[in-house]
Structure formats: structure tokens, C-alpha cells
Amino acid sequence: MWQKVATISEIEEGQAKPVDAGGKPVALFKVEGQFYALDNTCPHRGGPLGEGYLKGTEVTCPWHAWTFDVKTGACQGIPGVKQATFPVKIEGDDVLVDV
């Protein structure tokens, strides 16, 4: 189900924003003009990925430094661990996530 979570102007290039998508905590990222969405809860200890450090397409959890590719959800340090990703689309100035 598509949920409006932000407007394009709310997130600057290279930034992240924790959002609520129909009761689901989602981390929204803007990288090279594209938006990506991950489950906001790190699988390690529940850290908020939307408050993490974003470098390129890699976000680092602010609690224990686990890193994830925002495009694929793949954990960069532990093969086989993957964070849930969600489709994102733009309608006018609105950013929508399908959760």
C-alpha cells in the first residue's frame, strides 16, 4: 500500500530522514537525485538507520556501526544479512513508499 511519507524538498541530497509509512518505521534516503527506503530498524540492536551516517549509497547505523547499501539493503559487513527495502515513487512533489 503506497503511503505519502515526505515531499521532495524535505530531504536534501545525501541526507536521510526517518519517516512513518502507515505505522511502519522507514528510513528514507536521497542519493544522486533518487530516493530509497529501508526498514528503519537495524537488525543488530534496533538502531535507527534514518539517523545514521550516509556516504554514497551506504548508511552506517548510529548505534553499532553496521552498514547497509540503501539500494539493495545488503549488510556490507555480514554476508547474507539484508535489511528490508521498499519501492519508492514520486507523484508531483510527494514521495511515496509502498509498505
Give an overview of the whole structure.
The protein is mainly β and 99 residues long. It contains no helices and ten strands. The mean pLDDT is 96. A hairpin with a 2-residue loop joins strand 3 and strand 4. The chain starts with a strand and ends with a strand. The strands form three sheets. The chain has a four-stranded antiparallel sheet with strand order 2-3-4-8, with no helix packed on it. A three-stranded antiparallel sheet has the order 1-10-9, with no helix packed on it. The protein has a single domain, classed as 3-layer Sandwich (Rieske Iron-sulfur Protein), CATH 2.102.10.10.
Provide the domain count: 1
Q: Give the integer mean of the pLDDT values.
A: 96
- Using only C-alpha atoms, the radius of gyration works out to 12 Å
Q: Helix and strand succession?
A: EEEEEEEEEE
Structural class: mainly beta
Q: Tell me the helix content.
A: under 10%
Strand order of the largest sheet: 2-3-4-8
Q: The CATH topology is what?
A: Rieske Iron-sulfur Protein
What's the end-to-end separation, in Å?
A: 6 Å
CATH class: Mainly Beta
Overall number of strands: 10
Q: What general outline do the C-alpha atoms trace?
A: globular
Q: What is the CATH H-level superfamily?
A: Rieske [2Fe-2S] iron-sulphur domain
